From TrEMBL:
InterPro entries: Aminotrans_3 (IPR005814), Aminotrans_3_PPA_site (IPR049704), PyrdxlP-dep_Trfase (IPR015424), PyrdxlP-dep_Trfase_major (IPR015421), PyrdxlP-dep_Trfase_small (IPR015422). Keywords: Aminotransferase, Pyridoxal phosphate, Transferase. GO terms for biological process: biotin biosynthetic process; gamma-aminobutyric acid metabolic process. The lineage of its organism: Bacteria, Pseudomonadati, Pseudomonadota, Alphaproteobacteria, Rhodobacterales. It comes from the Bacteria. Gene3D superfamilies: Aspartate Aminotransferase, domain 1, Type I PLP-dependent aspartate aminotransferase-like (Major domain). This is Adenosylmethionine-8-amino-7-oxononanoate aminotransferase. PANTHER family: ADENOSYLMETHIONINE-8-AMINO-7-OXONONANOATE AMINOTRANSFERASE. Its cofactor is pyridoxal 5'-phosphate. Belongs to the class-III pyridoxal-phosphate-dependent aminotransferase family. GO terms for molecular function: adenosylmethionine-8-amino-7-oxononanoate transaminase activity; pyridoxal phosphate binding.
């Protein structure tokens, strides 16, 4: 290893904490310090390149060197490099982006609130709901329903929404955040249960939960159309069609967390379009700026927008907001990103590549140690199993998915281990040739690791 790279690794380890990093992996392997990118590739301080099959963290959908996005940022920095959205002021870019977001949203009208991240957007949503419920005389309407395995972020509230056991190390979730069963038929379905029966059971569980807790204590049901960081889990057949009427009947808003799915990942602009349901609000981030600026948005449809507006008028203020909410550079980049995704062929490319992506996943799933492939649009996962017939996972101490991901890295491919699955979430600009390269490298890694552990 060249001295220079060693220095970079030592410097990274000495002064920076990592988020969500498997420590044994970096203890053995060191840090990859990345310096720049080209298309879907990133380059490290050793001059090695990696095909990033995870689009960074699902967000760099236009690749790592999109000139138009960089120019939009530069132009706005030159024009007006920063402003807030407090005290009755906001930038022209913010105004234009809100108009655009409502235009491309599934809502005929609505309103937008900006944050710096997806986590803060979920936090903001919950504060909005608590605020408007209190203003409407329902201070007890506070509980939030989500699902096990869901990922909604890392702030105290969005961690509580997240249905992952790892949050126990923080003493979370907070009380009042309830996690229903993950609608993953392959893993959660019982012996002899059809997929339709499974979906009906998910709906019954929701009914029972509402009956037990009391509809008037529940502020919202929040769901990702396809669960992302839970391991790319599309809902069971008919899931949203089964739960939406129950929520409507009880007056419980359905919120679509589209931080990953939004802006094309599933082949439609919104995941809720792909799955044919109509949420009351959308949480957006990531592809919202193609990853070129940290930004999130809460997009309220007409009912919640009106209720919030009335609540704000009652006390004549919504005491919430971030310094960089609606940052003009972020908004200018987002306007450009939306144009690039919707009008310059990125969404078309997602649709064109999806059959090749699915075929590649299906082919690798023929491996006796892959139990299931799943996905939608350009997000997919392969789940490793010790025994395909019984769906028995590998012993967790073997860290099979981490080993596969590390071996991929050795072959110049970045993909992500999630539980016992390997997740692929390529950028929308990927070519067919790059997709073939991705599957070839992954296949090599799978064969290598399964030969070691089988
Ligand atoms: N919601 C979903 C569905 C996500 O996937 C994520 C991030 N992966 C978040 C919320 C949190 O977003 P952020 O990391 O920007 O806070």
């Amino acid at each position: 290893m060249p001295d220079d790279a060693k220095t970079w690794e030592a410097r990274a380890a000495a002064h920076s904490f990592y988020g969500f990093t498997d420590l044994p992996s970096i203890r053995d392997r060191g840090t990859v310090v990345v310096t720049h990118g080209e298309g879907p590739y990133v380059f490290d301080t050793n001059g090695r390149n990696y095909l990033d099959a995870n689009s960074g963290l699902w967000n760099m959908v236009a690749g790592f060197d999109h000139k138009g996005l960089a120019e939009a940022a530069k132009a706005q920095y030159d024009r007006f490099p920063g402003y807030h959205a407090f005290f009755g002021r906001m930038s022209d870019q913010t105004v234009m982006l809100s108009e655009k977001l409502i235009e491309v949203s599934p809502f005929e009208r609505g309103k937008v609130f900006y944050t710096n991240s997806g986590s803060e957007a979920n936090d903001t949503l919950v504060k909005m709901l608590w605020f408007l419920n209190r203003a409407e005389g329902n201070p007890q309407r506070t509980k939030i329903l989500t699902r096990k395995n869901a990922y909604h972020g890392v702030t105290v509230v969005s961690s509580s929404m997240t249905g992952k056991p790892y949050n126990e190390v923080f003493g979370l979730p907070l009380p009042g955040f309830l996690h229903l069963t993950c609608p993953h038929y392959w893993r959660e379905g019982q012996a002899g249960e059809t997929e339709a029966d499974f979906t009906a059971r998910m709906a019954r569980e929701l009914e029972d939960t509402i009956a037990r807790e009391g509809a008037d204590t529940i502020a919202a049901f929040v769901a990702e159309p396809v669960m992302g960081a839970g391991g790319v889990i599309p809902p069971s057949e008919g899931y949203f069609q089964a739960i939406q009427p129950i929520l409507r009947r009880h007056g419980i808003p359905l919120i679509s967390d589209e931080v990953i799915c939004g802006f094309g990942r599933t082949g439609q602009v919104w995941g809720c379009d792909t799955y044919g349901f109509r949420p009351d609000a959308i949480i957006s981030s990531k592809a919202l700026t193609a990853g070129y600026f940290p930004m999130g948005a809460v997009i309220l449809g007409p009912t919640l927008a009106d209720r919030l507006q009335n609540a704000v008028e009652a006390i004549e203020e919504f005491p919430h907001g971030f310094t960089a909410s609606g940052h003009p550079v972020g908004c200018a980049i987002s306007l450009k990103a939306i144009e690039v995704i919707l009008n310059e062929g990125l969404l078309d490319n997602v649709r064109a590549l999806t059959p090749r992506f699915e075929a590649g996943l299906a082919r690798l799933a023929e491996n006796p140690n892959i139990g299931e492939w799943r996905g939608r649009g350009l997000m997919g996962a392969l789940e490793a199993v010790k025994d395909k017939d019984t769906k028995t996972p590998f012993d967790s101490h073997l860290s099979v998915s981490e080993r596969i991901a590390n071996t991929c890295t050795d072959h110049g491919l970045i993909c992500r281990p999630l539980g016992q699955s390997i997740v692929l979430c390529p950028p929308f600009i990927m070519t067919e040739g790059q997709m073939d390269e991705m599957f070839e490298k992954l296949e090599t890694a799978l064969n290598q690791v399964f030969a070691e552990v089988a």
